[in-house]
Amino acid sequence: MADIPTIQAGSQRIAVRKDLRVPMRDGVTLAVDAYHGTEDKPRPALVAMSAYGKELQALALTTPPQRRPSPMWDGCIEAGDIARVVKEDYVHVIGDMRGTGDSGGEMIGNYNAGGVPQGQDLYDLIEWVAAQPWCDGNVGMIGISYFGSMQVLAAAERPPHLKAIFVSGGHFDFYETTYHGGIMWFMPRAAREGRGGDSGIAHTNVISRMRHVHSPEELERLVEERLRDPDVAAWPNLVHVLKYPKNREFWFDIVMNPLDGPWYEERNPINLARTIDIPVYLQIDQGRGWTVDGHIELFHALKGPKKLDIGSYPPMQSRPWVEEHDKMFRWYDHWLKGIDNGVMDEPAVSVFVEGSREVVTAGQWPPKPVEHRPLYLRPRHKLSSEPELMGAEHAAPDGFYQAPLTVTDKVETVSWSTEPFEQATELIGTGAAHLFAEIDQDDTNFILRLWDAAPDGRRQLITTGYLKASHRELDERTTEGDPYHPHTRAVPVEPGAVEEYVLRLYPFAATFRPGHRLVAELSNDEPLADAHNALLPPDAFHLPVGRPVTHKIYRDAAHPSRLVLPFTTNPGE
After folding, report:
1. Where is coiled-coil annotated (predicted)?
2. 254-270: per-residue pLDDT in tens?
3. CATH number for the domain including 529?
4. Are residues 409 and 481 in the same domain?
5. How many Cβ atoms from other residues are within 10 Å of residue 318's Cβ?
6. Do 252 and 322 reside in the same domain of the chain?
7. pLDDT of 347-381, one tens digit each?
8. CATH number of the domain encompassing residue 120
C-alpha cells in the first residue's frame, strides 16, 4: 500500500486510486476512482456511476451536507458519504459514464438509449471491479437519484458479482420523470445542464438522439410542429432550446417528445426489473410523488428479496447525500459481508405516516387495508362525504381565470376544504380527483395539491396530481382511486364542453389530527413560491399554460366532482 496515495478525512486516512481505466467490451474505457482503507486487504465494493462527474462527487470529503433551501445545495453530489463508506470497510468506486467526465466514448440520448446500453457498461465495470485485488468479489452499488436509476439498469443485466443493490430516490418511468400527467417538468433540464443549483452532466461527448436519428430537414419540420404548441411557443427558453439544440442535446430530446411510447419505454427501468432476482432495497421520501409512485411500481415488479421504505417529508435529502446510510450498511453487511443482523427478519414494507409521525410496517403495499371513499366538492368551497343534491342551476360552478404568465405574476387558485377532523383520520395509498370542468380553450393544465392545514395556519403538502387536459384518456389499468393515463396521444378539448378529468394523486401516507383540515387547491400553473416549492431546486416547476383560460369546475348533482381517497380508518373512529 506504500505506493498508493492517501488523504486525511477527519480522523481517518483514506487510500485513493485515481483515474483507473476500465475497459468496456467495445474498446471504450471508463474512468473511475476507488477509495478504501489503508490496510492492504480485499473488501466488498460499492459502485457509484452517473454522468455528473466523479470529481464533483469527491466534494463529499470536503463539503458539509447542505439542505434545501441552502443556495449551496448541489443536486448532483449524489454518490454518498465517501468517508463513511471507507469507515464501514468497503471500497467506494465512483466513476463517469461514457461520453462524460474523464471516460471515453459517446452518449447518445438520455441514458444512452440509442447507443451502447448503460446497463452493458455497468455489467463490464462491476465484473472488472470484482476481479481487482482490492475487492473480495462482492459488489453492491450506492447513490441517490440518477445513481439509483443506474443501479436498476445494472441489476437488469445480471452481472454475476453484483450481489445486492440499495436504491434511494431513483427515477424509473422516464416519461413520468419528465412529463407529470403530460405536463412538462423543468427539473430534468436542471439536472442535465446545470441550472438552479445543480451542476449537471459533465458533458464531453453527448449527442441528441433526435439529431442522431432524423435528417436535418425532417428535424426542422418536427421542431416547427412542436413550436405550434402555444405553451412551448410562449416560453422563451424553450424556443431557444428548439432553435439552437446543439448545447442542450438531452433536454432538446425531452422537449421534442411530449407523448409516451417506445422512445421512453426503452429507457424505463421498470420494464427491465422483471429480470432482477438479486436483493433490492428501495427507499424514497414523501413529497416527491412521481418517484414514490415509481418505487412502488418497481417494488411490485421485482421477483427477488426486496424492501420498500417510504420515509418522511421533506422531499429532498442533503447534498452531498449522507442520509439512509445506516439502513444501507445494514443491508450490505447482510448481503455482501454475510453478517446475520436480522435485516431480513423485518417486514418488507415500512411507511412513515405524516401527521401521526408513526411508522407502519407490513409485508406489502399498501401496508394496511384501504377503502377508497369520496369527498365531494360542494358550494362555498367545502369538501364533504355527502354528494351535492342540487343541479347546476342552483349549485353554480366554481371557477378561475388564469392569464398567461407573460402578462401577470399572479397564479390563480380555487380551493375546497373539509371541516376540522374530530378524530384522527389516516389515509395511505393512491388517490384520484374527478373534476367536471369546462374550459374556453382546447387545452389547459390541471394541478391539484392536497394540504394538511393545522389550526394555527401552518400547512404541509400531502400529495399532488397533474393532468394536461388533452391527455385525459384513461387506460385499462384504471381502478377506483387508482387511475392511469396512457399519454400516447393528445386529444384537444372542445371549448365550452363539460368534460370529466380524472387526475392521479400520487401515493402518500398521512394522518389528519383532530382540528386539522384537508384542503384541495386547484390551479393551472404553480404558485411562484410557497413553503413546499422552497424545498425543491429552483427549476422544479412545470411549463405554464401559454394562453388565457377560463375554468369552470362543476360540482352539482349531475357533475359529482370529487376526491377519491385511500382511507384506512373511518372518520368517526
Report:
1. none
2. 999 999 988 888 777 78
3. 2.60.120.260
4. yes
5. 17
6. yes
7. 999 999 999 999 999 999 999 999 999 999 999 99
8. 3.40.50.1820
Task: Report yes or no: 504 and 430 within 8 Å, Cβ to Cβ.
Answer: yes
Pick the closest to residue 512 from 418, 390, 407, 415 (CA basis). Answer: 418
Q: Specify whether 296 is located in the same domain as 379.
A: no
- Asked if the structure places residue 213 within a domain, the reply is yes
Cell of 195: 441550472
Domain limit, last residue, from 311, 346, 381: 346
**pLDDT (mean) for 312-316:** 88
Q: How far apart are CA 307 and CA 428, in angstroms?
A: 18
User: Does 239 map to a domain?
Assistant: yes
Cα-Cα-Cα-Cα torsion 203, 206, 209, 212, nearest 10 degrees, comes to 150
The three cell numbers of residue 372 are 377508497
Q: Do 108 and 201 fall within a single domain?
A: yes
Q: How many CB atoms lie within 10 A of CB 550?
A: 14
What is the enclosing helix (H) or strand (E) of 34?
strand 29-36
Provide the number of structural domains found in the chain.
2
Instruction: Indicate the pTM of the whole model.
Output: 0.95
Contact in structure between 350 and 359 (CB atoms under 8 Å): yes
Polymer length in residues for the chain: 573
Cell of 225: 410542429
Report pLDDT digits (tens) over 110-161.
878 778 888 999 999 999 999 999 999 999 999 999 999 999 999 999 999 9
- DSSP secondary structure letters along 167-211: EES---SHHHHHEETTEEBSHHHHHHHT-TT-----BSSEE-HHH
Encode pLDDT of 292-304 as tens digits. Answer: 999 999 999 999 9
| 418-437: pLDDT as tens digits | 999 999 999 999 999 999 99
Asked if residue 421 lies in contact with residue 512, where contact means CB atoms within 8 angstroms, the answer is: yes
Which one of 331, 346, 361 terminates a domain? Answer: 346
| C-alpha dist (Å) from residue 249 to 120, 227, 256 | 23, 17, 11
Tally Cβ neighbours within 10 Å of residue 64: 9
Let me know if residue 463 belongs to a domain.
yes
Alpha helices, DSSP H only, in 283-422?
Answer: 289-301, 325-335
Q: Is the dihedral of CA 358, 361, 365, 369 positive or negative?
A: negative
DSSP symbol at 61:
G
**Whether residue 218 sits in one domain with residue 275:** yes
Instruction: Give the domain extent around 472.
Output: 371-567
- Asked if residue 366 is part of any domain, the answer here is no
CB 400 within 8 A of CB 413: yes
Q: Are residues 333 and 408 in the same domain?
A: no
Whether residues 415 and 532 fall in one domain: yes
CA distance linking residue 173 with residue 273, whole number of Å:
12
Whether residues 337 and 389 share a domain: the answer is no
